[in-house]
Design a protein that fits this description.
- There is one protein chain.
- The radius of gyration is 22 Å and the shape is globular.
- The chain has 10 helices and 12 strands.
- It has 3 domains: 167 residues, Alpha-Beta Complex (tt1808, chain A), CATH 3.90.1570; 56 residues; 100 residues, no CATH class.
């Protein structure tokens, strides 16, 4: 633990000095260093396996399997029959917020045929830990997240020791991950009913935790003892308020007022986006570079933010100043947030809904250029 803490402190110093300039720096000088501190032999390619080749889900328009390469796969050589202990997908430092959707899709496809015990998505700063064997959507398999640069270093070391230390694989690490995942879901549920519980408790003059207990049972079919609710009441979802601010070039231009808004939903677009990489997006009056699908929603919503602040859209499609209501909040300008827990298709659909609600024509006012396409106009 002492050696790990020294390494974490030194890595934090280098992160703050912006010394990690690309993905390879993060992969070897940061992730590799942490793995070594946690007992993995990074000099043994059968244990610290980079560019590990796996079979992925094929895109719908292909009849044969395609392959991908996991940035880092950790094995215990004498237990290779059990498969990889850990898959780690690495991004350039500071880019995870913009590559979250594509990164999760990569891990999801990598784990289809070659399930790891634990999977990690990181840019060296933000770390997201998943339990691939858990049920539900891939986001439901998230059991912890941390910010190596900004979080309490002792807490960072504690999480790494519990879920990434070689000596804990595989049963102890997986059991700990499942316990963390269950607790995380409880914290999310409590945060979702807090406001309602406060209003009802004040109106009925009853203890807030008793009201919360009833709401958790009726809304989420979640039975929790009062002592546990009280213990988790002030807990926040790790990482939910630590997203970096958007790129400086994602700004709302000064333009005339938008047309009058509309109620209802527009026709759904055709799905021409799944398994495609986005290059840039046109919204209303200009093109913007986009490195991933999350960028598309941030760009469009920043452009429309003044109109979206009115709150006419539901939580699903709208914006909020409370990041805790979203599974994967992304920062917009002026202290607002929106949800990025979306597939590429649903990113486009949310943009259609937002444009339509403010009186724009999603077909004419939104264009997306993808790799292999010169320019993709929206089609209904």
């Amino acid at each position: 633990m002492i050696e790990l803490r020294k390494d974490i402190d030194d890595i934090r110093r280098m992160l703050k000095a912006n010394l990690f300039q690309d993905e390879q720096h993060v992969r070897f000088s940061l992730v590799g260093r942490i793995c070594q501190s946690l007992g993995w032999n990074i000099w043994d390619p059968s244990e610290f396996y980079t560019e590990y080749k796996v079979k992925k889900i094929p895109p719908k328009n292909l009849s044969k399997d395609v392959t991908g390469k996991v940035d880092i796969a950790l094995f215990i050589p004498e237990k290779t029959s059990e498969g990889a202990e850990v898959f780690i997908e690495v991004k350039t430092a500071g880019r995870l917020e913009y590559e979250m959707v594509s990164g999760e899709l990569q891990l999801l496809t990598y784990n289809t045929y070659h399930k790891s015990a634990i999977s990690i998505l990181t840019d060296g700063i933000q770390w997201r830990f998943y339990l691939p064997t858990a049920g539900g959507d891939f986001d439901d398999r998230l059991f912890n997240e941390l910010n190596l640069r900004d979080d309490d270093p002792d807490e960072v070391c504690r999480v790494f020791e519990q879920v990434l230390k070689k000596d804990n694989f595989r049963k102890k690490a997986v059991d700990t991950a499942e316990a963390m995942r269950k607790e995380r879901k409880k914290i999310i549920s409590i945060n979702l009913i807090k406001d309602d519980a406060g209003i009802i408790a004040e109106k009925l003059d009853q203890p807030i935790h008793i009201i919360a207990q009833r709401l958790l049972k009726t809304k989420y079919k979640l039975s929790m003892p009062l002592e546990e609710i009280e213990a988790l009441w002030e807990r926040t979802i790790p990482g939910s308020s630590k997203l970096s601010t958007p790129s400086p070039d994602i700004k709302a231009p000064t333009t005339p007022d938008p047309p009058k808004g509309r109620n209802g939903l527009p026709p759904k677009p055709a799905d021409i986006y799944t398994f495609k990489r986005v290059k840039r997006v046109f919204v209303i009056d200009g093109w913007h570079e986009a490195k991933n699908w999350g960028d598309v929603k941030v760009i469009v919503y920043n452009r429309l933010l003044d109109g979206l602040k009115s709150g006419n859209l539901s939580k699903t499609y709208g914006v909020s100043q409370d990041p805790k209501i979203y599974r994967r909040p992304a920062s917009l300008r002026d202290g607002y947030y929106t949800d990025l827990n979306l597939s590429s298709y649903n990113v486009v659909w949310h943009c259609h809904v937002a444009l339509y609600s403010l009186g724009y024509d999603p077909i004419k006012d939104l264009k997306i250029e993808m790799e292999g396409n010169n320019e993709s106009h929206e089609r209904s």
